[in-house]
Each structure stands twice: as structure tokens, then as C-alpha cells.
Specification:
Distance between the termini: 16 Å
Oligomer: single chain
Strand content: 35-45%
CATH architecture: Roll
Structural class: alpha+beta
Number of helices: 1
Helix content: 10-25%
Strand order of the largest sheet: 2-1-5
Largest sheet: 3 strands, antiparallel
Number of strands: 5
Number of domains: 1
Shape: globular
Length: 78
């Protein structure tokens, strides 16, 4: 690494989750992992949420699995 380059950050899988309102969330995890979390919540008790981590802020948030419309692998963030 030259002196002009910054430290190398590990890449993380990013998945975009779209809900019925059209709001899109970018989360830290691969699409298959996110799918599993959402499906597990949907099969759980009534009103169980799927807990995810926002890729930009690192904060946890929850989505109602019944409101998820699409999942899309967004690749990696450098």
C-alpha cells in the first residue's frame, strides 16, 4: 500500500430491502441471510419483527415481514 492510499477496509455484503411504502433499506448481510431473518420472523409469533442492521449507520431496526416487497443483493461496499 502506498502512502496515498488509505487503510483497506473489509468488504461487507449489502442487501437492499424494499417495503410496501417504497422505502428502501440497505442492510449489512447477504441476501440469503436477510431472507432467512425475514422468513423466520414471518413464521414466528404474531407481530414478530425481523431485526436488521442499517449498513450506513450500524444501527439496528426492525421491519414487519408482511410489509417486505423485495430483496436485492446490492453487492459490497468498499
Amino acid at each position: 500500500m502506498s502512502s496515498t492510499e488509505g487503510p483497506v477496509r473489509p468488504t461487507a455484503s449489502i442487501t437492499e430491502v424494499t417495503v410496501v411504502t417504497g422505502t428502501r433499506y440497505r442492510v449489512e448481510r447477504g441476501a440469503k441471510e436477510v431472507e432467512r431473518v425475514i422468513l423466520d420472523a414471518a413464521r414466528g409469533s404474531i407481530m414478530q419483527f425481523a431485526w436488521l442492521v442499517d449498513a450506513a449507520t450500524g444501527e439496528q431496526f426492525a421491519v414487519n415481514p408482511d410489509h417486505v416487497v423485495t430483496l436485492r443483493a446490492a453487492g459490497s461496499e468498499p
